[in-house]
Amino acid sequence: MEPVSKDAKTNPAASASVLSQIFFCWLNPLFRIGYKRRLEEDDMFRVLPEDGSKRLGEELQSYWDREVQMATKELRTPKLTKAIVKCYWKSYAVLGIFTLIEEVITVVQPVFLGKLIQYFEKYNPEDMGALYEAYGYAAGVSLSTLGLALLHHLYFYHVQRAGMKIRIAMCHMIYKKALCLSSVAMGQTTTGQIVNLLSNDVNKFDEVTIFLHFLWVGPLQAAAVIGLLWQEIGPSCLAGFAVLVFLMPLQTVFGRLFSKFRSKTAAFTDSRIRTMNEVVSGIRIIKMYAWEKPFAALVNDVRKKEISKIMSSSYLRGLNMASFFSASKIIVFVTFTVYVLVGNTISASRVFVTVSLYSALRLRVTLFFPSAIEKVSEASVSIRRIKKFLLLDEMVKHSVPLPQEEKKEAVTNCYTLHCFTVPQSSLLCTILGELPQDKGVIKVKGELTYASQQPWVFPGTIRSNILFGKELELHKYERVLKACALKRDMELLPEGDLTVIGDRGATLSGGQKARVNLARAVYQDADIYLLDDPLSAVDAEVGRHLFEQCICGVLKKKPRILVTHQLQYLKTADHILVLKEGHMVAQGTYSELLRSGVDFTSLLKKDEEEETGEFFRTRTLSQNSVRSRTSSVMSDKDDSEQLPVYVPVQTMAEESRSEGNIGVRIYLKYLTAGANILVLVGFILLNLLAQASYILQDWWLAYWTSEQEKLDMLNRNLTFTNSINGSLDQNVTQQLSLDFYLGIYSGLTVGTVIFGFMRSLMMFNALVRSAQTLHNRMFNCILRTPVRFFDINPIGRILNRFSKDIGHLDSLLPWTFVDFIQVFLQIIGVIAVAASVIPWIMIPVLPLLIVFLFLRRYFLQTSRDVKRLESTTRSPVFSHLSSSLQGLWTIRAFKAEERFQQTFDAHQDLHSEAWFLFLTTSRWFAVRLDGMCSVFVTITAFGCILLRHNLEAGAVGLALSYAVTLTGMFQWGVRQSAEVENMMTSVERVVEYTELESEAPWETQKRPPPEWPSQGMITFDRVNFSYSSDGPVVLKNMTAMFRPKEKVGIVGRTGAGKSSLISALFRLAEPEGKIYVDGMLTSEIGLHDLRQKMSIIPQDPVLFTGTMRKNLDPFNEHSDEALWNALEEVQLKSVVEELPSKLETVLAESGSNFSVGQRQLVCLARAILRKNRILIIDEATANVDPKTDELIQKTIREKFQECTVLTIAHRLNTIIDSDRILVLDAGRIHDYDEPHVLLQNQDGIFYKMVQQTGKAEAASLKQLAKQVQTTALKNSVESFMEWVSMTKQLHPSLTSPSTMQSVECSGVKCRHWTLEQWRRVLWSE
Fold it and tell me: CA-to-CA distance for 491 and 475, rounded, in angstroms?
């Protein structure tokens, strides 16, 4: 397997000095690079050894294994939380010291602030001692601000890294578990669910570690603040604290409710991603069946349920945010209302010490503490889901390595022949240990290797797919390539065997995938080779080559178990096993079984025909099965013999990664998706009102304290004057009107609360609706984009948009967006308040603003790239998981779990490199911002002292208390703005998928009549076809006609363009030239009108998760009776009747609880139900046994007698009885005529293909072709004679010999017409 990344740079964090660690100076070189150019993966630093995926995963795994053992001993359920706590508690507990110191500083800072304001209250210009003391308190405020900045970011960096470690370890464990799941366990989970565990659930560990320490710090700080407030304002502080105590359980309730919604949302998200996974995997079939609408309805239904839960949890978040916004205002209001009502007078120092202490406490108690509860609740849900997955059953391996001396003796050549697909694959699965046996013993001695029935390739080069971890031995490798008929393909590929093939090998043909799959098994030096039908996906010529050169050539000295439906190879077998419905009915050599006659004769009917020559297959002929030998083909053909056409392998398109700023267009698209312009204007006004009332409430308190101070001064002067004058009568102190001041104060508080709550709830509603709209647009666009998009984009990449990016839009982005707006307005408020108190403060603020703007731009240049790198390095993790789950049996058979685990760890480490940079660059920026805020606080504090002559205590209190809050808030606001911009990359990625190229419309104004096509005639007129505008032309100048009710076989070597012909007919890409169906030009009608009128039985049968009824009839167009009849026609009625809920039984993911043959029969039942005039069979019987093949052929002949049938086949016996055979070569028509005529041309491709099946098989095929022609001729003569006798009386002239010779229709002489055609001519005459 390819290395995941190039050599990364050494991580400078490992060797940085203490000062560099505190200020994150070691990142400066990276920022310089990021400012000059776009950052690439090479610029990232190597992951620190202690953060490596393997190391972390194995450490946590060992604790989990111990916990499972202990739980088994104690007869209890294992607790994953216990394992996590035991593994990480020591390192995480140390970080609590940081928090404690930080909280002590937070509580001490308001005390310094209070002492500084007291200096202004008792201002005495003469008292120099008080002035120096004030300078000391100002320095205390400044230093505590700086200390908080440094400690806070060091703490956050370390706790986020702790969260990252748990997440990485958990991902390692989930993937390791996925590789070990038993077949029973695989039925209990789905790819979508495992992807969701890796994309959403593990992220909760990143979040929970940030807030966990506040569960104990919050209450501790609350106690300290209450103590200080008691000293400051006495028992009145208890009123405010009562509000706080009421808010805390309220927030806890919110947390629990949030957790409840989260677990429900997760279940719906699982379901949606699983459905999306199936839609993306089976998109070709969905398009051919024109099933986009029912799938859209299915996804929209799940999405509606998901979004209703997301909306509920968003409202909770809105309430949470609004209560946080208003909490301190309500607390301060209640405290001072009680304080003044019990007869106290307020002063600036009391008010602003109280405001500052409550502000500090508010952050911890109403944000961090409830966030901790919320995140713990969410994490516990995720831990439960992960634990459930980790406790699923594992597969037990039981093969014994073979000693070297025994290897030399093991040269048995053993093949298995099976009657049905179920037993054959099940037998190999049981040998592999994939299926547990109910009873009996399986002994496997030696190393096994396995080639699966459905070829599996993983993203990487062709060479890495074949070597599969083994060292390259050039001679052996070349021999394997030659034996597996891959030599020519390698020569034709642009990069040879180093060509990168994409996800699921979407860009290789079916035959190429099968040969790569086989080559992988052959290259391994194993003792026993299990080959599950490797010859079915290739044509006869390649099949014979593989059998002779590979299975009986390279592997001739090895024991082989070959499952095959190709009976011509059985004579070579040393031992044959005959299975029927899971039971062994016979075993022995070929001659022994022939003599025994146990069901073997019916299976080997064809072989008996070869031996005796007495038996010919009879066939129900269509009415116009006899045709002229003149084919209606006008195709250009090269004189030179064409090589098999090379199907170009496109490398995967690199994931797009936009550069530069997120444009205003993206923001507008995002906002207008959830609300119109008028509503957006309303939001702006609401935000301004909320912020204005917020500031005015504090300003009114400051004004009140100033008026109170003036009044106190006046009263003191009055008292002093009266005491001098000795006038006791006038010794009455004046008082402020409590009703007036308290009334205004109450009004502003109520305004703050109402506007705050309205703003949060309405904005959350609009932004979640935006997410819903964009998801729907993206999904609709995905459904309408051409198939090529899915060929060049891996599943993981597309699913990443629907899981991670939509996850951001659903929950993280609305919260971040609303929070940013709220904080941004508060920052503007702080600067405005400070400027109103000390106007000249704007002088130092302006240069600070310029520095900030440069710093932000400097930071974002790098940060945006880091975030985008984080997104693009995440996709391979999902792609690797998805790919591994598809090839699980192969990986385990090759014992490659360890290597795939290493690759997964390498993908994780690459993502960790990006994530580590994301964490550290954020902290680098935040430390510098808070440093600037410390400068602002210092200027404000010392500026107030310098301007002490003109300032009132209330104004100083307001300015300083606001300036202090700026510290955390400013960096948080700017980081949130950057976070919004980073998360807008998710919006950008979603919007990108809402603007994909769209295929032709599903319906157009020109609608065909309901009965169209009534005949089923298909005409290709000079058709050229390419899968993309810049891709190679795979069908060249094709002109052909398929007549009504005609049965046409389509053959050609691998890559000749057989499937491309079907793609052109279904318009999976738009062909050049004209294709007519019953005279109607297909390019003029809608895709659904075209595709719904043609039935297809695909090469890879696809079933979808959902009921059997939905799989047969997604539009609910047919009655139960019709469905049961269709199932009976294909002999599946008994199978479905045995299911628990019959037609309503929900199938496993991709219908995996049905065999390949049964899935193919379901596809046949679909075709029967549709009752279309045109049926296309795309190598439908390649993977099924002869009995199922015969059943399918028989059903097609009987049920589709009146239809035009086009059959692509590798097995020539399935198409030898066709009316005509179309031979394709290198995208051109090589021959097109009746089978018997084609076999007369010994230079023709078809003749050579028949010869390559072997002497006996070739003789049988020729005999069949001859018999078909004889029967057809006989039918034709009978039809003709019947017509002559019927028309003599009506039109004597028409029956004269001269007329007979001259009448022609579409270039076909009338003597070969059927009765029906004669009648048609007669009535038209």
Answer: 17
- The model's pTM is 0.67
CA angle centred on 190, ends 184 and 195, rounded to 5°: 135
Burial of 395: CB neighbours in 10 Å, binned 0-12, 13-18, 19+: buried
Burial class (CB in 10 A: 0-12, 13-18, 19+), 654: exposed
**Range from 493-507, 689-703, 1294-1308 that averages highest in pLDDT:** 689-703
Structure tokens at 931: 């440093």
Cβ 1203 vs Cβ 1045: under 8 Å? yes
Q: Could you give the C-alpha distances from 229 to 137, 378, 709, 890, 1244, in angstroms and in order?
A: 19, 35, 21, 69, 101
* Integer angstrom CA distances of residue 1253 from 536, 566, 621, 809, 1261: 13, 10, 25, 58, 9
More confident of the two residues 305 and 791: 305
* Residue-level pLDDT at 1300: 45
Show the tokens assigned to 959. Answer: 């300015």
SS3 label, residue 1252: coil
Q: Side chain identity at 484, as an amino acid letter? A: C
Cβ atoms of residues 654 and 727 within 8 Å: no
For the stretch 301-317, pLDDT in tens is 888 989 998 898 888 88
Higher pLDDT residue, 897 or 404?
Answer: 897
- Spatial distance between the Cα atoms of 744 and 733, rounded to a whole number of angstroms: 23
The answer to whether 719 and 733 have CB atoms below 8 angstroms apart is yes
Q: Are 463 and 494 within 8 A, CB to CB? A: no
The rounded distance, in Å, linking the Cα atoms of 318 and 241 is 23
Please give the Cα distance from 454 to 143 (Å, whole number): 69
For residues 360 and 109, the answer to whether their CB atoms sit within 8 Å is yes
Degrees, nearest 5: CA angle 660-663-668? 160
Question: What average pLDDT does range 144-161 have in this prediction?
Answer: 90
Structure-block tokens of residue 966: 């700026």
Return the closest-CA partner of residue 1091 out of 291, 547, 318. 291
CA proximity to 1198, closest of 425, 449, 618, 656: 618
* Token reading at 144: 């505590």
Tell me the DSSP string of 834-900. HHHH-GGGHHHHHHHHHHHHHHHHHHHHHHHHHHHHHHHHHHHHHHHHHHHHHTHHHHHHTT-HHHH
Runs of H (alpha helix) within 785-812: 788-792, 795-800, 806-807
Q: Are 962 and 841 in contact (CB under 8 A)?
A: no
Decide: residue 599, CB within 10 A, 0-12 exposed, 13-18 middle, 19+ buried: middle
Residue 309: CB atoms within 10 A of its CB come to: 20
Closest residue by Cα to residue 258 from 320, 208, 200: 320
Cα gap 1131→1146, rounded to integer Å: 20
Cα separation, 1059 vs 330, whole angstroms: 71
Give the pair of three-digit tokens for residue 691. 């912020």
> Under 8 Å CB-to-CB from 623, ≥6 apart: which residues?
1045, 1314, 1315, 1316
Q: Could you report the per-residue pLDDT of 986-1015, keeping only the tens digit for each? A: 888 888 888 888 888 888 888 888 888 888
Asked whether the beta carbons of 697 and 329 are under 8 A apart, the reply is yes
| Residue 337, beta-bridge partner list | none
Which residues, 6 or more positions from 323, have their beta carbon under 8 angstroms from its beta carbon?
247, 250, 251, 366
Q: In one letter, which amino acid is 1061?
A: L
Measure the CA–CA gap between 68 and 61, rounded to whole angstroms.
10
Kindly state the tokens that stand for 1294: 């028409």
Any alpha helices (H) in 494-628, and if so which ranges?
Answer: 510-523, 540-545, 590-596, 600-603, 605-612
Give the three-class secondary structure for 978: helix
